[in-house]
Amino acid sequence: MPDELWELFQRVVPEAPIRPQGGGRRRHGDREVLAAIVFVATSGCTRQQLPSASLGPSGATAHRRFAEWSKARVWAKLHRLVLDELGARGELDWSRCAIDSVNMRALKRGS
Q1: By three-state DSSP, how is residue 108 classified?
Q2: Which of 68, 66, 71 has its CA nearest to residue 47?
Q3: 60-83 residue pLDDT tens
């Protein structure tokens, strides 16, 4: 996990929930879970095939955290931060993203 991406991610990830009952297993760190999620997304393996021995969290843990972060809109916030960062550096080529103004009429459904 590149440090730059991790620094941006820390700005959007919610605080870990507190377990009022205490006990239980240690929660895997966000950075290692994010690395596992990125590994699944980029390698083509399924979460069940995740090599937890080398990455740390299991596929089930990665899936749970992915769902938790999706519900908190972490991915959309991170995407926006990355775009803002790249834009500030002048590293975005907006000429490849040309979108023309389009007017669309809403469909009328039966009365």
Answers
A1: coil
A2: 66
A3: 999 999 999 999 999 999 999 999
- Enumerate residues 6+ apart whose C-beta is below 8 A from 84: none
Place of tokens 């240690």: 26
The rounded distance, in Å, linking the Cα atoms of 108 and 105 is 9
Q: Give the integer Cα–Cα distance in Å for 14 and 20.
A: 18
Going by the DSSP 8-state scheme, the letter that residue 36 receives in this structure is H
Decide if pLDDT at 111 tops 60: no
Relative orientation angle of helices 74-89 and 3-12, to the nearest 10 degrees: 130
Task: List all residues 6 or more positions away from 14 whose beta carbon is below 8 Å from its beta carbon.
Answer: 69, 72, 74
Q: Give per-residue pLDDT as tens, 21-72.
A: 767 778 899 999 999 999 999 998 888 888 877 778 999 999 999 999 999 9
